[in-house]
Design goal:
The complex is a heterodimer. By secondary structure, chain A is an all-alpha fold. Chain A contains 8 helices and no strands. Chain A is globular, with a radius of gyration of 21 Å. The mean pLDDT of chain A is 89. In chain B, 58% of the residues are buried. Classes of the chains: A mainly alpha, B mainly alpha. At the A-B interface, helix 1, helix 2, helix 3, helix 4 and helix 6 of A face helix 1, helix 2 and helix 3 of B.
């Protein structure tokens, strides 16, 4: 019963803050709404028994990615942003498309059939603790994707540095 | 036990909210934020399916998606900064040099 109430609370908060985030005029407020959304998403991960992912969600998404968004928002000018129109001229088309997408996705749900069961029932995960179970799966079956993910992060770090580096006029003249 | 379809419906609604934000906002940074919403919807779907299928696979993939989202945020915001530096705007409808 408590789980149901908690799920409903998280669902209402996620949908509400999501809608607020895409409609609010000030981008900083929108980022803060998304922060609240990420915390409730971590709550949903907790009732799904994924504690490690809930922690990663808060640390990486709420702690790192959103702070990056806030920094970049302060780098670009916000002063005229709050006075301007915040939607494109064909926004109604986007709204129709997204409502149609939601309706079609949800109407497809009854035809969904669960696949084959895996090797990690909830009891085994609780016995081994979630972090250890995830680690055992990640460092054995998924070691190659794990290494590739590290490479992607390295490329992202280098790419971010190169893109954000300020080109002085002298270097442009030289090249 | 909460039915799996509740999680999937919530995920579908959140994904549609992300699509709506991506298609309607003018600000490039808000569009990237909408992409984060869509990635979160997919993550929620994967974790729920992984829980109901007694498998760890979906959660491993969620971990990788979080990695890719971090990389995407870094690169995308770098592009936003470069765009602002050269065009003095981050509004996507004002960047129309390629429009004939």
């Amino acid at each position: 019963m408590f789980t149901y109430l908690f799920f409903l609370y998280c669902a209402v908060m996620i949908v509400g803050t999501g809608l607020l985030a895409i409609t609010m005029r000030n981008p900083v407020h929108a980022v803060l709404m998304v922060l609240v959304l990420f915390f409730h998403m971590a709550g949903l991960y907790l009732i799904l028994g994924a504690e490690f992912l809930a922690a990663v969600q808060i640390i990486v998404y709420a702690g790192a990615i959103l702070v990056l968004y806030l920094f970049v928002l302060f780098l670009v000018s916000l002063r005229d942003e709050v006075k301007m129109d915040r939607f494109v001229t064909s926004a109604w088309l986007g709204r129709i498309i997204s409502v149609g997408l939601a309706v079609s996705l949800i109407s497809m749900l009854p035809t969904f059939v669960l696949g084959q069961k895996g090797h990690w029932p909830m009891a085994a995960v609780i016995k081994a603790t979630h972090t250890k179970a995830l680690g055992m799966e990640m460092y054995t079956s998924y070691i190659l994707p794990f290494e590739i993910a590290g490479l992607i992060l390295l490329i992202a770090v280098i790419g971010g540095l190169v893109l954000a580096k300020h080109d002085t006029p002298t270097t442009i003249e030289k090249s | 036990m909460i039915p799996l379809s509740w999680y999937m419906s919530l995920s579908a609604i959140l994904f549609a909210i992300g699509v709506c934000g991506f298609l309607t906002r003018r600000n490039l940074i808000m569009m990237f934020l909408s992409i984060e919403l869509m990635l979160n919807a997919v993550n929620l779907n994967m974790v729920a399916l992984s829980h109901y299928l007694d498998s760890m696979r979906g959660q491993v993939f969620t971990f990788f998606i979080i990695t890719v989202a971090a990389a995407e945020a870094a690169i995308g915001l770098g592009i936003a900064i470069t765009l602002y530096r050269s065009r003095k705007t981050v509004h996507v409808d004002e960047v129309n040099q390629l429009k004939g």
